[in-house]
Amino acid sequence: MLRNLLGEPPRENSGALKEAMESMARLAALLRKDINAHPDRDQGYRRVELWTRGLMTSLDELEQSHFAAAFFRRSVQAGYMDEMNVSEQGEYARYVYFYKNGFIRVFSLLDKLGTVLNTLYDLNTARIKAHFSYFTVLRQFRNNQDHRDLCARLEEIKDRYREPMQRLRKRRNAEIHYMNSELQDDLWQLHQGVHDRIRLEDLDEHLEDLRLGIEMVCRSLSQAYGYSGRLLERRLGKSR
């Protein structure tokens, strides 16, 4: 959608994004097949199918946010706020909008994945924390002896992307709980000297962190849904 609005060609999925989308689509199709064959089955599969299709939409929107942020970033050449003309200020504002939308969506999408895993594997994470995050689910998963392989893969992905995810989390927390993130940068700089000029944050570094965050999300989705799909295929094969 955003590519069309920006006059760009449609996206062709590739790499980690393609793997994640295909893994989710396979599990959704398996769930739908089982629901159609057993309409009186527990509604759990129906919920997971709906959540999965929602996750596919959320991942598409996350990737689009990163694309749009990178698109508008190309028009920002100034290094300081007072060097921007009116047009460049508008492009910077649009970059900020989509960048913030992106890093907020990274954690929102992970939390939705946590809800899916909590349901599929009966982790009962709500007993530990009523409003739980993906990372709380992952800690709870360590107690599940039947699926240690999946837990180990998800933990490895989390550790591999620890540093960029920590930076994204810090900015997400500042945006949601304290003040908007670019204003926080500005206030910090003003403390250095009342008459100092306000330097822009490193836009390329921030976009790279967001790209890595999306990659972390995609790899986590691929592992979780790939594993769950293979498990469901075996279960459905035995029930025939």
Automatic annotation (TrEMBL):
Lyase listed as a keyword: no
Stretches of the chain forming a coiled coil according to its record: none
Cyclic nucleotide-binding domain span: 55-114
InterPro entries per UniProt: cNMP-bd_dom, HEPN_Cthe2314
GO MF annotation terms: DNA binding
Pfam families: HEPN_Cthe2314
Name of the protein in its database record: Bacterial nucleoid DNA-binding protein
UniProt keyword annotations, A-Z: DNA-binding
Record carries keyword DNA-binding: yes
